């Protein structure tokens, strides 16, 4: 029902914009991925889940006042997904992070540059300036 979809969307959005909310949502959705099925079958399910999670993360919720606010709150958390230590989890989180980054860069290039690409490339730029 529509009311349940709205309520779930609202709860998901609120969680995403809290500290460590992105990681909690990704962990919740990706839990159990990578186990069972044949190698190719499990990999396909894994990719589809990663793409779905990335689409969710790249979508600015209706409750958010602006895309700028959403990107400011969520993008640092997306970049944090690149630093997960556990190897299996890291692979999935990196897929989600890169797909989200690409989606955000296509949809809102200036915001993605400011909140994702500049922080991601800052160490490289510092090295090239010296």
UniProtKB/TrEMBL annotation:
Give all residue intervals belonging to the TANGO6 HEAT repeat domain. 16-129
A Pfam family this protein belongs to? ARM_TANGO6
Q: Which InterPro entries match?
A: HEAT_TANGO6, TANGO6/Rtp1
Name of the protein described by the UniProt record? TNG6 protein
Source organism, top-level taxon: Eukaryota
Q: Which GO terms describe its biological process?
A: protein secretion
